[in-house]
Design goal:
The chain is 18% helix and 27% strand. The chain is of the alpha+beta class. The protein has two domains: 113 residues, Immunoglobulin-like; 295 residues, Purple Acid Phosphatase, chain A, domain 2 (4-Layer Sandwich), CATH 3.60.21.70. A nine-stranded mixed β-sheet has the order 6-2-1-12-11-10-20-21-22. Helix 2 packs parallel to helix 4 and helix 3 runs parallel beside helix 5. It starts with 22 loop residues before the first helix and ends with a strand.
């Protein structure tokens, strides 16, 4: 978030919390697979090996990434299958050591489309995790649901909203950034690999978060607080921040630098994830053709990905609001935003749906002038803007659109394969439905 009009200052300060890699804390946090009977549950042979529960990321085509975090140097592998009681496929071995903070990921290949995939982590022939699951890309006749939101700050643990999200049973989750507030409190901030690792580990230790990540496929992008407030492409410690982000939130990118990527969730829905931090110009730069939020290479990739997409719906994950006017949002990069809008119009690209976070309230920001749908969600677990800034509530409540800022929240996009339609809804931390509507 930016310093105007949305301000990140004023956080309560607290001592830095350090990672506790004890067997009791680790596997007490391991999520039991909802609906899995005792006969299907694995019997653990090495209860203290894993620091946190494994999680599945960036499923696309016939592959997916399984993230693993250990308490010590160890070699592990993943066994998986289409039934919880029959994990008959096996991944390659993965070595975890101190050089990667004992974290890593292994790619599963040959994953069938349209399936629920069950998996567990093994050391030799001993299971060291419960059975978790994820959703592979859907076949043409299958409906599915995407949950989305952002902003999780350590001070607000436990993140109980993730238990509400478990009950909502999404197939996919898009975390829209500020997965960690590495720069809070300011007095403890040090833009170094050890500091970033401590902060990410503290977030991943949250039990509701672990339970949730164990039951769906996750796609994640960073925003500024994984780096530093209002981060831009000129900061000298971007490489360190990106290294640690990738250690804790695997990203299946073709390029070595930057987190942008695209996936087909089904023949009807593409997910395009933008990196609005790694390549952006400093916010104070005067607007014009040289000012960018995406950088030249990513912008061309984005426009061509939109143009080439055969999907009915193009869902674009942008950590900061596309229609937002603050210093840190797309509105401070108007020339480039106009270029994107004009390209979409010129190419006749329909059903572009932006999902975003960062503003710490929920809003339908769809815009008739741009022709782009946009749905802002959050926060999941940090301060709410409307509590601190009543003028923001008044400003964003003008007009007939949906807006909500009185609780933690998340959005849901539901694709119905029968009607080939997309609907949006929002829920608060208790699961109350705040809004429902048809996108297209």
């Amino acid at each position: 978030m930016s310093n105007a009009p949305f301000n990140d200052d004023g956080y309560p300060e607290q001592p830095a919390r350090r990672r506790a890699l004890t067997a009791a804390g680790a596997l007490a946090a391991a999520p039991l697979l909802a609906g899995t009977s005792g006969t299907n549950a694995l019997s653990f042979g090495s209860a203290g090996v894993l620091a946190f529960s494994p999680a599945a990321f960036d499923a696309h085509g016939d592959r997916a990434l399984i993230w693993v975090s250990a308490t010590e140097a160890v070699r592990v592998h993943v066994r998986w299958g289409t039934a919880a009681e029959s994990l008959n496929k096996r991944s390659a071995e993965l070595s975890l050591d101190k050089h990667s903070d004992f974290t890593g990921h292994v790619a599963l290949s040959g994953v069938p489309a349209g399936a629920t995939i069950y998996y567990a982590v093994y050391v030799d022939d001993k299971a060291v995790s419960e059975v978790s699951r994820f959703t592979s890309p859907r076949s043409a006749e299958q409906s599915f649901t995407i949950a989305f939101s952002g902003d999780t700050e350590e001070k607000y643990k436990p993140f109980r909203i993730f238990d509400t999200m478990v009950a909502a049973k999404p197939d996919y989750f898009v975390h829209l950034g500020d997965t960690v507030y590495a720069d809070v409190p300011k007095r403890d901030f040090s833009p170094t690999v050890p500091h970033y690792r401590r902060k990410h580990a503290a977030i991943r230790a949250d039990r509701p978060l672990q339970r949730f990540l164990a039951q769906c496929t996750t796609y994640t992008i960073w925003d500024d607080h994984e780096i530093q407030n209002d981060a831009h492409g000129g900061l000298p410690f971007l490489a360190e921040a990106e290294q640690v982000f990738r250690e804790y939130w695997p990203c299946d990118t073709e390029q070595a630098v930057g987190l942008y990527r695209a996936f087909s969730l089904s023949a009807a829905v593409d997910l395009i994830i933008l990196d609005t931090r790694r390549f952006r110009s400093v916010q104070a730069m005067p607007d014009g053709p040289e000012k960018t939020i995406l950088g030249t290479a990513q912008k061309q990739w984005f426009l061509q990905t939109l143009k080439r997409s055969k999907a009915l719906f193009k869902i674009v994950a942008t950590s900061v609001p596309f229609h937002g006017g603050s210093q840190d949002a797309w509105g401070n990069y108007k020339t480039e935003r106009d270029e994107v809008v004009n390209f979409i119009r010129h190419e006749g690209i329909d059903n572009v749906v932006m999902i975003s976070a960062d503003y710490h309230f929920a809003r339908d920001w769809s815009n008739k002038r741009s022709g782009i749908h946009e749905y802002v969600a959050g926060p999941l677990a940090t301060f709410r803007t409307f509590d601190k800034q009543p003028d923001a509530r008044e400003r964003h409540s003008k007009g007939p659109h949906f807006v909500f800022g009185d609780d933690f929240n998340f959005g849901m996009l539901h694709y119905d394969a029968r009607s080939k339609s997309l609907r949006v809804s929002y829920q608060d931390s208790a699961g109350k439905v705040l809004f429902e509507g048809k996108v297209a």
